[in-house]
Amino acid sequence: MTSDNADRVEALLDTANLAEALESDRFKQFLDHAPVAVAVSELHPSEIVTYANHEFSRLTGLPVAEIEGRSWRALPGIAASVDDDRLLRDAVKDDAEYIGEFTIELKAGSVNVSAWSNTIEDETGKPIFRLVALANVAGHGPGGNARAKTLKDKDVLLRELQHRVKNNLQMITALIRLEARNVPDDATGERFDRLAGRIHALAVLYDALAQENANDTVDLGAYLGQIATAVMQAHAVEGVRLDMKLDTWPVSVNVAMPAGLVVNELLTNALKHAFAGREGGVIKLHGLIDDYGCHIMIADDGVGLRDGAIWPKPGKLGAIMVQSLKQNTSAKVAVTSSPGNGMSVTISFAKASSHSSE
Predict the structure, then answer these.
(1) How do beta strands 240-246 and 281-289 pair?
(2) 173 and 229: one domain?
(3) Of the candidates 39, 16, 50, which has an alpha carbon nearest to the alpha carbon of residue 125?
(4) Beta-strand (E) ranges in 281-337?
(5) CA quadruple 137, 129, 204, 250: dihedral sign
(6) Within 10 A of 124 (CB to CB), how many other CB atoms are there?
């Protein structure tokens, strides 16, 4: 996610409202299963950690009870670089955004993590929370130092790993804040269901990157297929069939991430709305490669958009995802729909754009 897109997400937020969200058991249950280690502190009147998820506890080796209600002073970890003696507990308060790689000593061995620290502001611009996130560099928990060393030996790959995790963290943070803002109780279930789907799409990407043979690309066909399978399982509608044809094509993570989020969004929309009042239908997901490049089509034979409606709707999250994909790949997006005749979205980008790293 580019900094420009991150700014556009921020502009959509009337207020973070994170305090109320963190008091919600349902919100905590969601964060507990997020694929990134997350902890949050309130900044006033004094900075105390008010929430830490299970992944944060796992990577730090501290029980949640020993994190929450305390300051960041309890946080273990020292900078991984031999010429850097910073402690993680100090860096989270002194630095901003990506703060570096740190080594944490655990009973099962040491683990290297990439760390980020971001303040969250209220509607007046006053910092009210700090969000700290950790991501395992090796991707396999304690004992993964051998793989971490392999990554260090590949400087370009390590920088790409840090870049991709930071992009995903920005997207995750934006999604959490956007969905959690002023959500009425009767709408919480559906909104968090959608959010869980988006986070799962990112989690699938992390899994692909953590494979032993993973390099700096992701098989877009396999990735989209995994997303489609997960969406169909989560939102199964009787009588609705998925027609899936996906070619293999290696792409940069900066292409795969927005493409996967857009596909996840469109498939979820189709299953929830396209067949209202109908006994069933067909959803198509085709990802085909030709001499030009890649063409991803998501289509259904459902009710279609109502008169005057458009997708993506300006100012909504879908529009931000599409814009991110356009910026990363110079993609062309064609949308056709009419009442009663379904909807089709085709995304096309050239082969040369599929390995974009910015």
Answers:
(1) parallel
(2) no
(3) 16
(4) 281-289, 293-300, 332-337
(5) negative
(6) 7
Asked if residue 325 has pLDDT above 90, the reply is: no
The DSSP secondary-structure symbol of 74 reads: G
Global confidence as pTM: 0.55
The answer to whether position 193 is within a domain reads: no
In the chain, DSSP assigns E strands to: 37-42, 48-52, 78-79, 97-106, 109-121, 127-136, 218-219, 240-246, 250-251, 281-289, 293-300, 332-337, 343-350
Among 90, 96, 37, 35, smallest CA distance to 61 is for 37
Chain CA centroid to CA 40, Å: 18
- Are the CB atoms for 130 and 121 separated by under 8 Å? no
Alpha-carbon dihedral of residues 24, 179, 188, 26, nearest 10 degrees?
A: -30
Question: Are residue 139 and residue 259 in the same domain, yes or no?
Answer: no
Q: How confident is the model at residue 18 (pLDDT cuts 50, 70, 90)?
A: very low
CATH code of the domain in which 109 resides: 3.30.450.20
| Cβ-Cβ contacts under 8 Å for 213 (sequence gap 6 or more) | none
62 pLDDT exceeds 50? yes
Interval 211-238 mean pLDDT: 81
- Segment (H or E) for 134: strand 127-136
CA distance 167 to 170: 5
What backbone phi and psi angles, to 5 degrees, belong to 89?
-60, -30
Output helix, strand, coil percentages for the chain, rounded to the nearest 5: 45, 25, 30
3-class SS of residue 62: coil
In a domain, residue 208? The reply is: no
Looking up residue 308, the CATH number of its domain turns out to be 3.30.565.10
Are 143 and 107 a contacting pair, CB within 8 Å?
no
Tell me, rounded to whole angstroms, the distance of Cα 161 from its chain centroid. 14
Domain hosting 233: range is 217-353
Q: How many CB atoms lie within 10 A of CB 60?
A: 24
